[in-house]
Write a structure and sequence with these properties.
Structural class: alpha+beta
Bound molecules: 2-oxoglutaric acid
CATH superfamily: q2cbj1_9rhob like domain
Distance between the termini: 41 Å
Largest sheet: 7 strands, antiparallel
CATH class: Mainly Beta
Order of helices and strands: HEHEEHHEEHEEEEHEEEEH
Number of strands: 13
Radius of gyration: 17 Å
Helix content: 25-40%
Amino acid sequence: MSDFNNTDLQSHFDENGYIAINPLFSDNKIEEIKIELTRYIKEVAPKVPDHHVFYENKDDKSTIKQLQQMFTYDDYFKDLIENSSIREVAEIVLREKAEPQNLQFFNKPPGIGKPTPPHQDGYYFMLKKHNAVTCWLALEKVDEENGCIHYVRGSHKSEYRPHGRSNVLGFSQGITDFGNDNDKKNTVSFPGEPGTFLIHNAKTIHWAEGNKSRTRTRKALGFIYYGESAEINQEAHDAYQEKLKKEMKEKNLI
Ligand SMILES: O=C(O)CCC(=O)C(=O)O
C-alpha cells in the first residue's frame, strides 16, 4: 500500500495518544465484514467456549455483547487482523512489527447495552513495556445516543491510574478516580459513520456511554496488537484470565 503519511500519523498518535481515520474502509468493505460477522454469529459462535461469547442477558441469545478471540476461530477474521490496512496503521504507530493478540466484537444492544467504564487497556495486558495498541472499527453509525468512544487526550503520557473491579462483563476493571478536571477538559468524543477507525495507545484512557437508543445497536470490532518486542508477564496474565473465567462462571454471567 499505502496512502498514509507515516510522519503525520506518528506525530498525532504520539501527541494525543490516538488517531481517528474517518473512514478507513469503504461502505462495501464494511458490508462484507457485517455479512461475515452474521455468519460467524450463526455458525461459529455456538461452537466457541463460553468464556469467549458474552451476552447482556445470557438467556437471550439476541443480546450478544462481545465475542473474543474471533481470529483464532475463523479464517476470515484471521485474514482481517493479519493482512489488512488495520495492521499497517498499527505498525506505523508502533514503529515495529505488530503481533495480533485479540479480535473482538463489541455490541451494545438497544436500551440494555451497558456503559464501557473508563479504563486503560495496558492495565489488563500486563506488559513489561507498553508498546501495544488497540484499534476500533465502527460497523454502523455511532454517536452519543448509542455509545460512541471517548478518549482523554494526552492521558497516555501519565502513569496508570488506579483501577478496580467494574462489574461490567467484558470490562473487568475501571478507573476508580476518573472524572477530575483534567479528564473532563481533555475528553474528546468520536461519533462517526460506518467505517470510522480509531487506534489508541495502551495507556490512553477511553470509555463509552451505554446505548440509550431503543432501536439501534452499536456494533464495532476491536483489534489488539502488541509490538514484536513486547514482553508479556505471562504468568500474571494467565493467572488473571483464569481468575476472571472462574468468577464469571460463579456469577453465572457466562
Ligand atoms: O466498544 C467499546 O465500547 C469499548 C472498546 C474498548 O474498550 C477497547 O477497544 O479497548
